[in-house]
Amino acid sequence: MCFLRNLRPIFCRWWPVNLGLEVADRLYAAGQVGRRSIISSLHSSGIYIITSLALLAASTLVLNNLAFLDENGLLVLTRPFFLPLFFCAVLLSLYLALHATLQLVREQEKGTLKVLFFGPVDGVSYLLGRLWSQSLLFAMAAGLVLLWALGLGWLTNLLVQMDLLGVLGLGLLTNGAVVAIGLLIGAWGRTARTALVVFSLVILLALLVQFGDQTILQMAASAGANRQDPLLFLRGALEMLNSLLLWLSPFAQMSRGMDALLVGDTGRLFLHIGGIVGQMIVYFTGAVWALKRGGP
């Protein structure tokens, strides 16, 4: 991370001296925080276990499709690896976000942040380092996922196209936004129990809203519901919440970005990329505010 010190003359040449030094120092401090976090994560078993579970679940999805093909003789899938890669991205992002949340809370409880904040580290550089480290860990795991897709495609003769890189790119941005949500929860929660409960409730609520309307629609169809059936009113309410969730959930933006990637709609793809980046900025800014307001 020493190369970040070389940014000082660059920033100082084009920007005011004090601002240039502040940005360079923050980047250097963020790099040190991120480096410490990455080394700690690579020496623990969590990232390896969750990556293995994600690949196992993705392999199960692909093998189920192959079993269906063997049984019925026909299976129409334009991108057989899109759903497995999306599933991998969701699992990895949730783990890395939860890990960042709990690490932030633990360092608050132990007083580590107070010690760091007496030095060159402040709230922005600390949270930026955490965000950077979790993004790099996701990129490492995504590399393994890409190798898995290429290997399985070669073994099964399933089509592997270059747009898988686009899916992984969307996953990387989505991971950053989800980690920012975790940092916001950790900075606001203050205790491990509170942060864990809030994180779990946020994820469960998002899943309930995103998939609940389809479940209720199937229940209403099987029951022969009419226009005045309460199930249809409940589904209408969930549809409204789902529309709101599009602007709050990075996974919803990623899913729609993948749809745009599938049909080749570049404009809509960049719209959803911008949505993910905007969510990440908003949640990260909220985490910085919550950490400064509550103190280390």
Cα radius of gyration in angstroms: 22 Å
State the secondary-structure class. mainly alpha
Number of strands: 0
Number of domains: 1
Give the proportion of residues in helices.
over 70%
> Approximately how much beta-strand content do the residues carry?
under 5%
Oligomer: single chain
Low-confidence stretches: none
Secondary-structure element order, N to C: HHHHHHHHHHH
Principal-axis shape equals globular
- What is the count of DSSP helices, taking H or I runs of 4+ residues? 11
Kindly report the average pLDDT value: 82
Q: Alpha-carbon distance between the termini?
A: 25 Å
Q: What about the largest sheet? A: none
Could you outline the blueprint of secondary structure elements for this entry?
Blueprint: H1 7-14, H2 17-42, H3 46-72, H4 82-110, H5 112-118, H6 123-156, H7 163-189, H8 192-223, H9 230-245, H10 250-263, H11 266-294
Helix pairs in contact: 1-2, 2-6, 3-4, 3-6, 4-6, 4-7, 4-8, 6-7, 6-11, 7-8, 7-10, 7-11, 8-9, 10-11
